[in-house]
Give the backbone structure.
Amino acid sequence: MKWYDGAVFYHIYPIGMTGAPRTNAFEAGEHRLNKLIDWLPHIKEIGCDAIYIGPLFESVAHGYETIDYKKLDSRLGDNDDLKNFVKVCHESGIKVIVDGVFNHVGREFFAFKDLKEHRENSAYKDWFKNIHFDWNNDYNDGLYYDSWDGHGTLVNLNHQNPAVREYFLDVARFWISEFDIDGIRLDAADVLDFTFMRELRSVTDSCKQDFWLLGEVIHGDYTRWVNNEMLHSVTNYWLHKALYSGHNDHNYFEIAHTVKRCTDMGMHIANAFYNFVDNHDVARIITKLNNKAHFFPVHVLLYTLPGKPSIYYGSEFAIEGEKKPYADEILRPELKIEDYKDAVNTNENTKRIAALGNMRLNNQWVGEAGYRELLLTNRQYAFLREYGDKRLVAIVNNDDNNADINLNIGGRFTELFSGETRDFDGNMHVNIAGNSGQVWISNN
């Protein structure tokens, strides 16, 4: 079993979490990345053993318009800070995954600056997509270029050019040798060149054993990306949508259908997916839910359905965050550990997430377990995760009222939240409170 098979992730947007300025002055200043070291005991306490952090490298503003891939963003500190952060994480038993923004670059990236200066004579004129020297752009450069999603600050790279691919393969080698990272999350993987991703997999496999590649993919057939030649995992936006809308609409059929869509690709594929209920690009889960009490069953599903669970920093405290146009800062706030230092004891939401996270770490087999639906109505849903003689039964209820549940399951089980142990003779009969969840784990 590889480390990522049973991993539980904590997602950090460092520029926001550390309170860094939203615009880079490119001056040596505070070593803000060091603030995150104080969060590691909390991250461990809530049952996370991997951190996905990014973007990290020198950029102009939000971080995804990278201009220097071999230098930690000046607002966060210097390269020694990043080396030390990864080292301390590893000493704490935490793996570190970083953002790889390889689809596009910022306008101040060295090759694009050379293109603007030397135009047709630039050695880098073939590094970018759809360059036209007889057109113009919003910055009046006297040339046109493709940009990601029409954002002119994000200049699309031409990965058909072998020189571009080799440059970013060298970046990956540098990150592994210099910082000892354990994986890369590929930004905008759904539009990234497939040849490059295959070459990246080959390079990272040769550089570090059990190195993990995650791709940001929203739509499409996920098996196009998740296979033995390309990526180990993709962001499961299908399940993300189903988890909140299935509760808002009192429709567990939507969630169960989405799970079947994933498992029909193969259990090894479904278990590989990176599951989440919110991140730096979407509204906080507590904000999306019509009934805030559904926070509990949503997270029971996040941690027990096939896939690798991830918590976006702050959401373990159920903080709010509404998605608004051109206001991503709302989703990426500064947080201080002293404000939440006792949350596992004082915040019921944090306490439950910690119980779920530690359950996953103490039962690594769940990361590779099979899945079987046991009960499905609009308002109640139960399923079995099974690996050899190990079993987990998850039950959720999105109704305001208690529900009696009868499942064809036998054996001795202990319920995660109550600690109750019961022997079932082939009929698991339990009563579940409204807007809640139960997790029963077999005693073998």
